[in-house]
């Protein structure tokens, strides 16, 4: 049944609506509360917090950034089990942080946002959800995450397959892989983590590789009990450890700007492959022919040795078709299959930053149309033509070399500043100047020229036309410096002539209280 779009003034006015209760949305909520802004809601499409770490729970799933860095600076955890924590420990950290900061009353679950429209007359957003509900707010924050919608490959016959099919981000834990013939498609960050875990269980594992990944060794060390105790007892030691990890990761940005250096360094992972893979032909096929760093560099000590197992075959011929019980490659070879696992990544067209719903800003601005040739914003946060709209991990604020949580914190601080500055000025909305956005994007694209990302490969960093709309092309401390203080001259600060007709109703003082 079509829901009635309520007259805006019938709805209680929230200060902020956040989309998504993952690392980004929760960080935003914590920063708002710290700033004394309590009249907000998080709309979450699922039934639990966690985002990526709720969805990705395949065997072997773990973070490839060190846990002491891949956690909020303001919510330290002294007892991370390992350098790189598994997904369930990260998800538990997210659950614990949600409780610690009292965020649950602010979250509305099963609320998938499906529309958002800005009204310039009152400077307010109306946000609709799939259940037919509407929310009205001054500020609207998209924290919905870029790698989010599973990409299902368009392989002829996939829909005719009679066995089990699932995507790595929708792992079916009820399906027992024991003694099954399994086809795994894709060799990105997800596949290289689950392939070594399932290989000992299955009867046969065919790993379908289109492009090999550069995989470097992983520090598998667990933290000793004494280390955890020291981190707990002397927070300065934990901070020093985190600082060291930060700068070690930052150092990895240098080869990005110097492809020659990257090519020299890649002799090490080349040797790593030769050392770990017994069959020279398989080792050759696993060795990428593009410069390291062009695609995301992966870490694993288990991936390459998996190909020494007699029940594992690396398949590099292209896929021709899938039949009811098998998969056929372009050389005509047919391999039987009980199960197909799609490690094929996520949808990365403009939807990487903008989900499939209409979002309109000032007259003439419709985000899906404005971004049809590639998403552009300022610092990955604000977008000209879309007042009081903010993003976390928006265009060109992704990372390949350090923790995205660092960026998220800087972005959330910046957004709080925008809201506070607007209040201070007594204005209703801020709109990024088009010129600022244009200059920033020129600067970003210029910085990307000559980097390792332009040396010839395809990845979710680049669009089909080669434009990189994903990555922040400098050190992260430069991002922190640029977002530390809002430059007021970069925005128009607008006061509406026609104010909202109805004030916040009694008893609706905070979003949490209105639950
Ligand atoms: O996805 P991907 P992912 N036929 O896009 C192949 C993050 N992550 O889920 O390279 C055959 O990297 C595709 O081949 P090609 C991380 O940022 C983080 O593994 O396009 N193959 C590729 O091999 C990562 O970058 C952690 O030629 C097809 C693979 O599928 C991102 O998530 C852990 C195909 C997709 O790889 C995504 O990783 C895991 C087809 N039709 C992931 N279509 C952390 O620890 C696609 N492929 C933080």
Specify the helix fraction band.
Answer: 25-40%
CATH superfamily of the largest domain: FAD/NAD(P)-binding domain
List how many beta strands DSSP finds. 20
Please compute the radius of gyration using only Cα atoms.
24 Å
Largest sheet: 8 strands, mixed
Give the terminus-to-terminus CA distance. Answer: 25 Å
Q: How many DSSP helices? A: 14
Level-2 CATH architecture of the largest domain:
3-Layer(bba) Sandwich
Chain oligomer state: single chain
Strand content: 15-25%
Question: Can you tell me the overall shape?
Answer: globular
Counting helices, strands and paired strands, the structural category is alpha/beta
Total number of distinct structural domains? 2
In brief:
With about 525 residues, the protein is of the alpha/beta class. It folds into 2 domains: about 10-50 and about 105-150 and about 350-450 and about 465-505, FAD/NAD(P)-binding domain (3-Layer(bba) Sandwich); about 160-220 and about 255-295 and about 300-340, FAD/NAD(P)-binding domain.
Characterise this structure:
This protein is of the alpha/beta class. It folds into two domains: 226 residues, FAD/NAD(P)-binding domain (3-Layer(bba) Sandwich); 148 residues, 3-Layer(bba) Sandwich (FAD/NAD(P)-binding domain), CATH 3.50.50.60. The protein is 27% helix and 17% strand. Helix 1 packs parallel to helix 12 and helix 5 crosses helix 6. About 2% of the residues have low confidence. The protein binds 3-acetylpyridine adenine dinucleotide (N01).
């Amino acid at each position: 049944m079509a829901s009635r779009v309520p007259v805006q003034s019938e709805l209680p006015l929230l200060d902020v609506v956040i989309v998504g209760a993952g690392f980004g949305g929760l960080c935003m909520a914590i920063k708002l509360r710290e700033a004394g802004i309590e009249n907000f809601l998080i709309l979450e499409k699922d039934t639990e917090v966690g985002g990526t770490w709720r969805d990705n729970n395949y065997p072997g799933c773990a973070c490839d950034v060190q846990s002491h860095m891949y956690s909020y600076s303001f919510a330290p955890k002294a007892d991370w089990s390992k350098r790189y924590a598994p997904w369930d420990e990260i998800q538990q950290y997210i659950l614990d942080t949600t409780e610690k900061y009292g965020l649950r009353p602010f979250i509305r679950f099963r609320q998938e946002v499906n529309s958002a429209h800005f009204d310039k007359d009152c400077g307010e957003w109306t946000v609709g959800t799939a259940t037919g509900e509407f929310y009205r707010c001054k500020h609207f924050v998209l924290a919905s995450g870029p790698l989010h919608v599973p990409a299902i490959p368009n392989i002829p016959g996939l829909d005719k397959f009679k066995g089990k099919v699932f995507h790595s981000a929708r792992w079916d834990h009820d399906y027992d892989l024991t003694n099954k013939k399994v086809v795994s498609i894709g060799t990105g960050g997800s596949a290289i983590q689950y392939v070594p875990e399932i290989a000992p269980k299955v009867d046969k594992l065919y790993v379908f590789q289109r492009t090999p990944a550069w995989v470097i060794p992983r520090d598998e060390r667990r933290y000793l009990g004494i280390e955890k105790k020291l981190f707990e007892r002397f927070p300065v030691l934990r901070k020093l450890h985190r600082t060291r990890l930060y700068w070690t990761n930052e150092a990895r940005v240098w080869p990005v700007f110097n492809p020659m250096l990257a090519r020299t360094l890649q002799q090490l992972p080349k040797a790593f492959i030769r050392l770990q893979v017994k069959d020279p032909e398989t080792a050759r096929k696993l060795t990428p022919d593009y410069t390291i760093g062009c695609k995301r560099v992966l870490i694993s000590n288990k991936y390459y040795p998996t190909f020494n197992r007699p029940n594992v075959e690396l398949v590099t011929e292209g896929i021709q078709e899938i039949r009811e019980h098998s998969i056929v490659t372009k050389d005509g070879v047919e391999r039987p299959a009980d199960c197909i696992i799609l490690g094929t990544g996520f949808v990365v067209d403009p939807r990487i930053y903008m989900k499939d719903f209409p979002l309109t800003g000032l007259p003439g601005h419709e985000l899906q149309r404005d971004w049809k040739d590639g998403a552009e914003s300022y610092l990955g946060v604000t977008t000209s033509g879309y007042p009081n709209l903010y993003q976390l991990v928006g265009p060109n604020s992704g990372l390949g070399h350090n923790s995205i949580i660092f960026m998220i914190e800087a972005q959330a601080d910046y957004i709080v500043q925008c809201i506070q500055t607007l209040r201070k000025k007594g204005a209703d909305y801020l709109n990024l100047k088009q010129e600022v956005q244009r200059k920033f994007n020129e600067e970003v694209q210029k910085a990307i020229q000559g980097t390792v990302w332009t040396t010839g490969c395809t990845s979710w960093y680049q669009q089909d036309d080669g434009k990189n709309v994903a990555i922040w092309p400098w050190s992260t401390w430069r991002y922190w410096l640029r977002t530390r203080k809002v430059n007021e001259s970069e925005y128009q600060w607008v006061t509406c002539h026609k104010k909202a007709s109805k004030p916040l109703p009694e008893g609706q003082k905070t979003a949490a209280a209105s639950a």
